[in-house]
Amino acid sequence: MSRALWQAVLARAIDDAVNxxxxxxxxxxxxxxxxxxxxxTLLTTPSDDLEIICAFAGVETDALIEMMxxxxxxxxxxxxxxxxxxxxxxxxxxxxxxARKYAEGGRxxxxxxxxxxxx
Length: 119
Hints:
The protein has helices at 3-19, 29-44, 48-57, 61-74, 78-83, 92-104. The chain has 119 residues and is mainly α. The protein has one domain (3-108). The two termini are 26 Å apart.
């Protein structure tokens, strides 16, 4: 499987959890709030799904969870993000470098070491 694809999946979840869900197809506030909450739960709670995504993306799961707990603690609340919908989002091509930095840079990149790093 393509590592870049899974990094893009992970980047989308991170973007949704921290910045909110783009307004597409007339999503109502309640639906946006649910999507944001689901992204936050995925990224902060150990699960088989997250383990698989991280393995394919080349990201260390425990480090990602730790980093995302800190980032989400500083982010606006789910309700604030849902009330202020985003009308556009980063393209997958633009998000790919964001996800790749988590996978490639060890602890130098937001505390998220790659599985191959010795940190």
